[in-house]
Structure prediction request, 420 residues.
Amino acid sequence: MASTFCSSSIALPHSSIHSPQSLPTNSLSQTTVQIYGPKSYRGFGFHAVKGRSPFPVASAVAAQVNASEQAQKISFNESQRPVYPFSAIVGQDEMKLCLLLNVIDPKIGGLMIMGDRGTGKSTTVRSLVDLLPEIKVVAGDPYNSDPEDPEFMGVEVRERVLKGEQLQVVFSKINMVDLPLGATEDRVCGTIDIEKALTEGVKSFEPGLLAKANRGILYVDEVNLLDDHLVDVLLDSAASGWNTVEREGISVSHPARFILIGSGNPEEGELRPQLLDRFGMHAQVGTVRDAELRVKIVEERTCFDKNPKGFRHSYKAQQEKLQQQIASARSFLPSVQIDRDLKVKISKVCAELNVDGLRGDIVINRAAKALAALKGSAKVSVEDIATVIPNCLRHRLRKDPLESIDSGLLVLQKFYAVFR
Prediction:
């Protein structure tokens, strides 16, 4: 398919990769939608209404404002760098499955991806943007507050709720925020305008990347090269779910619950155990050795570089099918059950492997249920547990310098010994 597509001289249309048909019609004007072409807004413009409007001037101004906003959105999104389609990535099934499970159940706790350079770690993570589902947020809130859960509300939104105000709710895509290695602590945590606070007595807070990543994904490429002070910030936020900024006697807090995804090359150094334990799952990727498969990857990437929009259009059907699978799994997840006997055996594996704490037990149960939901099964099977348990425990084992066996294989050996 790739070679045929490259040699074709037909100009493909700028059709939308995202289909906004699943969005409620009353929230389209306020919903953040990624667009990859001017035809994305077809069918969602203003329609003529019979009869005369009682406010002709206001209607004309509103139409001009909305037309201007549409033009700005189209111009902005056309200028964005196209993202490689997730369904077009060849191989690396372990990494892709772990990413999908975290999207289905964000409470799994994130993913650490370690592997050789040039194996598509960053490309795969960033390609996840197209598949992220939509969530309800409070309109105009910089922290993406959840209107239905007080634990995910910012302080201002919670005060409005206590006063009995009606919150305006819109649908928005889950955010994916990149954390650069050279970012300052103020850029990550946010800053307080001390001058305005002293002169006007007002807390003026400029939210940082942690605020933007709330209820979303925070991606750190080359996480093992991250400065220690930023690692400490991530540890505090990941543990408490809140980010607190203290400056000159002024304190500001906001929710910061995010899926932490990191990638790195083991040759460049190991992660601190405290940070490594915060990742729910761990995936290892390696360089593809099969020559035919390597050629296919090169050809696909060449096609994407020549015509990104056309290449994305060729995978539109597969992308939409995967989006529907994720949406169905997220809605089906609460009804998935796991037998108590399987829970006991999971905890027995963790105990016999001397895994510290109970995070391993919790993550295995959540990941297995997410996998069952993805498969459309109402109950977790032994095969589901066998699939996810190496990724959930591999990075939690105590390292033995004399041990020659891979940690993932060690987990599987203990698993089969317990589950027989």
Summary: Residues 336-419 form a domain with the Helicase, Ruva Protein; domain 3 fold (CATH 1.10.8.80). The first helix runs from residue 2 to 7. The two ends are 44 Å apart (CA to CA).
